[in-house]
Each structure stands twice: as C-alpha cells, then as structure tokens.
Design brief:
By secondary structure, this protein is mainly alpha-helical. Helices cover about 80% and strands about 0% of the residues. Helix 5 runs antiparallel to helix 13 and helix 12 runs antiparallel to helix 13.
Length: about 400
C-alpha cells in the first residue's frame, strides 16, 4: 500500500506542478502576446477544458483496459504537452498544448486514484485521498516556483523537464502491481448513476470550490501585477498558500473519516464565501497576498471531504471507483473552466468585484444548504450515516 500511495502521490504532484507553473508566467504571456483578461482566462482554463473532455473517455479506458495503462497514457500526454509548451510562442499553440496536458491529467488522476482506492480500506479512504491530494497541493507549490524560474531563464528548460519526470514515473508505474481491468457497466447505467442524489451532490461539492479556485487563479495574479507585484512575488503568494494547504490537507482527510464528510465542508464553504467578498478590495500587495492565502486555505476544508463523499457514493451504487474520480475530474474541470474563462470574461465586461461576488453567493448558499442536509437512507459498508448526508433540494 505504501509503495502504491507514493506512486499515485508522485503522479498527481508532477501533474499539478506543471499545471500551476503558468501562474507567475500569466502576466508575462499577457504582455508578450498582448492578451486580454478573457484570453488569459482561456489559456488558464484550457487545461481544465482538456480534463473535461478527457474525463469519461479516461474513465472508460480505465474500466476497459485497467488503471495502469490509464496512468501511463496520462504521463505520456503530459510529457508531450510539456515539450510543446516549452517552445511555443503562439497563443493558439499554447492553448492547444495546455488542452492536451489537461487530457493527460484526466487519465492520470482517474487511473491513479482508482488504483489507490481499490486497494484502500474504507475506514482510511479520506486519509489516503487527503494524503495524495496533499502531494498534488505540493505540486501546486512547486509549480509557481518553476514558473518564477521560467520568468528569469525562459520556459524551454523548465517545461522540458516534464518529459523527464513523465518517463521516470512511467517506469515506476510499469513495475508496480495493478489490479485487472473491471467490467464496464455500460453508458446507460453510468448516465443513470449521475442522477443519484448523493452523486449529484458530490459533483456540486467538488465543482464549486474549483470554480472559486479558477476565479482566483486568473484574477488574483493579474490584480497583484496591477498593484505592483513582480512575478517572483506572485509566485511566492501562491507558494505560501499551497505549502500551508499541503501540510493541513491530510488532517482534514482524517477528520472526514472520523467526523463525517460534510462537517468540515460546512465551515469551508462559509469561510470561502467571506474571502470571495474580500478579495477584490485590497490595494496593497501584502494585504491582497494575505487574502489570497486565506482564500486558498478555505478550499482545503472542502476538497478532501468532497472527494471522499463522492468516492463513498460511487461505492454505494457499485459503479466503480473510476466513476467517482471521473466525476471528480469532471466537476473540477467544469468549475475551473467556468471560474477561469467565465470569471475573466465577466471581469473584462464589468470589474473583478462581479465574478468574486457571484462566487461568494454560490458558496454561501451551498454552506447554508449543507447546514440543512439530510441523511441518505442507507450508508455503504465501512461508512456512517452522517458521511452520506446530502444537501436538501
């Protein structure tokens, strides 16, 4: 179990590292390529769009051919996209490479998490999800560091390392024992499963924090740049927030195992709503940076319990863990696309206050809905009734 956990953690770490490397580079790309906020939002959201498109094909691939080939496919796509991103200087090519990287990320996350959870005891599911998610967060930590280095030395050597990391992880995955492929239940059953109340609730609970994160990832770096922050400072802001989030995320996973999935999220969504209202206000770099850090930390209270909630619900209806993490990808990607490109477009047409205000409204309503949650009729094996509460309609 330990070796498998370390493999999955390494895969998601590398994936998120190259995903997040663009954050401090965004102002430079905006300047060099004369990008509007909308165009910058499209570049940021292209990864999530690829993840969105690749989610169910990746899930089908995992069920049909197995989790290990799915992870290997994801690593290959990430490596190729990294090489393209290293040398491209046209926005259309950069968007396409980022999109391809997102498809690879969908395969890596679905295959990796399904591989891990299929071997995990039910009572440790939240802990293991939280541990692997912490590795992904540390990838987000390293990503802005790489991006900050790329602002100084250029993107070529930084993004070329994606191929080296991908090759090393592929060899590791190839030598790690994996379960045989499962039986794909058919698209009709998959479609019906999405309408199960707990599944639908889980998709929303994963997707909404992703939307808020997408708004932050586009507007916060640009706002920091506007009020005088350098690329290094912007990278440092996201570095600090991700470091803290990475250290505390496993604790939230253990908390979700012991106290139920929704209890941490009630606090997280409410706190995120408050921070979304505050983010457009500061005019000083230090104050805005602190608000970004606090806003990112509120998301840590939501991510792991929401993923565990969705994993539990998928087990209950016996569809397969690939389905749960395909939906995690789908919800995350949909939220990132809506928050990144939509938030940027709305900010272009109005101001930053409007997209942050919309996010605050949705987060607050969700926090209130969770507080009025009801228990599902019968929890799956290994869980408790409280863990499978779902917001009342």
């Amino acid at each position: 179990m330990r070796r498998l956990f370390l493999l999955v953690a390494a895969v998601v770490l590398v994936d998120t590292m190259f995903y997040a490397a663009i954050t401090p580079l965004l102002p430079q790309y905006s300047s060099d390529l004369d990008l509007s906020k909308s165009a910058a939002g499209v570049l940021t959201a292209a990864y999530a769009a690829g993840t969105l498109l690749g989610t169910f094909p990746g899930g089908w691939f995992a069920a049909r051919f197995g989790v290990r080939p799915t992870v290997l496919t994801g690593l290959t796509l990430m490596s190729v996209a990294g090489l393209v991103f290293a040398f491209a200087n046209d926005i259309a090519v950069l968007d396409a490479a980022r999109f391809l990287q997102g498809i690879g990320g969908a395969c890596s996350w679905i295959g990796g998490y399904a591989w891990l959870i299929s071997a995990a005891p039910a009572e440790r599911r939240g802990e293991l999800i939280g541990g692997a998610l912490a590795a992904a967060v540390f990838g987000v930590v390293l990503g802005p560091v790489l991006g900050g280095i790329a602002t100084a030395i250029g993107p070529e050597p930084v993004f070329s390392t994606a191929a080296l990391f991908g090759s090393a992880l592929a060899i590791w995955a190839w030598r790690t024992p994996a379960p045989p492929p499962t039986t794909f239940p058919g698209w009709r059953r998959v479609g019906a499963a999405v309408t199960v109340p707990a599944i639908a609730a889980g998709v929303w609970l994963v997707g909404l924090p992703a939307l808020f994160s997408g708004v932050i990832n586009v507007l916060a770096p640009l706002r920091l740049d506007e009020i005088g922050a350098s690329g290094v400072v912007i990278g440092a802001v996201f570095l600090i927030s991700a470091l803290i989030e990475g250290f505390i995320t496993p604790s939230f996973g253990r908390l979700a195992d012991r106290r139920g999935r929704l209890w941490p999220m009630r606090i997280g969504f409410a706190a995120a709503a408050v921070m979304s209202l505050l983010l457009p206000v500061p005019e000083v770099v230090v104050v805005l940076g602190l608000c970004v850090v606090l806003a990112e930390l509120t998301l840590a209270l939501c991510w792991t319990p929401a993923m565990a909630f969705l994993s539990d619900a998928a087990e209950r209806i016996a569809v397969g863990q690939w389905f749960a993490f395909a939906l995690v990808n789908l919800a995350w990607a949909g939220g990132q696309v809506a928050g990144g490109s939509g938030g940027g477009a709305i900010a272009d047409a109005t101001s930053d206050v409007v997209p942050f205000g919309i996010a605050a409204l949705l987060l607050g309503l969700t926090a209130a809905g969770i507080a009025q949650s009801r228990a599902l009729k019968s929890p799956p094996a290994g869980g408790t009734r409280e863990q499978y509460e779902t917001p009342a309609a």
